[in-house]
Write a structure and sequence with these properties.
binds manganese (II) ion; 3-stranded antiparallel beta sheet; 13 strands; binds adenosine-5'-triphosphate; DNA ligase (ATP)
């Protein structure tokens, strides 16, 4: 019986077929993180990140000269874009998407240092498959306050029949994320998250604020629900951040929150993987906004 020359097992990590030009280019100067190290990072976390970035519209924060150079937040394909990056259309406009690891490494080649997907896939762009509550500390707000806000958001999501997961932003705050069965459309999901943010503000006006006016945030946590509208994006779980420190937006256990900070994990960390059950936990949102309140945006 002939043995194959190379045995490919299921454990073999996938390999991208993208050629990196200037692999030695430095993206994070303080840490000396290069383009090649970033490609290796994304190859390593591919099994964890894939479902959050494949087949979704993506916005990219591109920094061709690294985090200290010019930066471009892009939602549309550019001239000369790598052919491993897809350009599907939405309402006649070309968007950015990837369908596999080659696409992800092509993003690295394109100096995309942050990946910001929609909370919906191309299977149905009108019905989000996740809710993202973005918790932003106002000036002087403590980490404990952010954690308390996240815990309260979790409770309110649970009360609505949903399951809540949490990740660091890799910046200053936390993101509480709930998987949805794609059912409710964007306006309904936005109304639900807006109602939650407003309720938190009116129940505890000293702790929470639901409107983005900067001056009102001092010492409080902004419950930023505006990630939950058509076309809005939030940084992906396991995406790097184009900020000093080379932090990564990292899924964490709820119980771990008190022992970490928003940028505790970096491209060089051994990253936790507590979201295995994420997709399985998806439930449909069933929310009917109060008819007595006037609908505003
Ligand atoms: P932090 O924890 O520091 O708040 P964050 O990723 O949550 O980190 P935010 O400022 O709260 O940062 O969120 C900004 C959101 O707005 C991002 O999720 C991003 O998808 C979106 N966005 C829209 N336009 C831009 C832009 N020009 N640059 C960066 N982000 C943008
Ligand atoms: Mn935020
Ligand atoms: Mn925000």
């Amino acid at each position: 019986e002939d043995k194959p020359a190379i045995e490919v097992t299921r454990e073999d990590p996938p390999k991208a077929r993208i050629k990196l030009t200037h692999p030695e280019r430095i993206y994070w100067p303080d840490e000396q993180v290069t383009k090649e190290e970033l490609a290796n990072y994304y190859t390593r976390v591919w099994p964890q990140i894939a479902s959050f970035i494949v087949n979704r519209p993506l916005a990219l924060l591109r920094c061709p000269d690294g985090i200290d150079g010019p930066r471009f937040f892009q939602k549309h394909p550019w001239k000369g874009i790598n052919s491993s990056i897809d350009q599907p259309k939405d309402k006649g406009e070309a968007l950015i998407a990837i369908s596999g690891l080659d696409g992800l490494i092509a993003l690295v080649q394109s100096a995309a240092l942050e990946i910001h997907p929609w909370g919906a896939t191309f299977e149905d762009l009108e019905r989000p498959d996740m809710i993202i509550m973005d918790l932003d500390p106002g000036e002087g707000a403590s980490w404990d306050q952010i954690v308390a806000a996240a815990t309260e958001v979790r409770q309110r999501l649970t009360d609505a029949g949903l399951t809540a997961f949490v990740k660091t932003s890799g910046g200053k705050g936390l993101h509480v994320v709930s998987p949805l069965k794609p059912h409710a459309k964007w306006p309904e999901v936005k109304a639900f998250t807006k109602a939650m943010a407003m309720a938190m503000e009116s129940d505890a006006p000293d702790l929470y604020v639901a409107t983005i006016t900067k001056s009102k945030r001092k010492g409080k946590v902004l419950i930023d629900y505006l990630r939950n509208q058509r076309g809005a994006t939030a940084v992906a779980a396991y995406s790097t951040r184009a900020r000093p420190g080379a932090a990564v937006s990292t899924p964490v256990e709820w119980e771990a929150l008190s022992q970490i900070g928003p940028a505790s994990y970096t491209v060089r960390s051994d990253l936790p993987e507590p979201w295995d059950g994420f997709r399985k936990a998806a439930r449909p949102l069933t929310f009917r906004p109060s008819s007595r309140r006037k609908a505003t945006s």
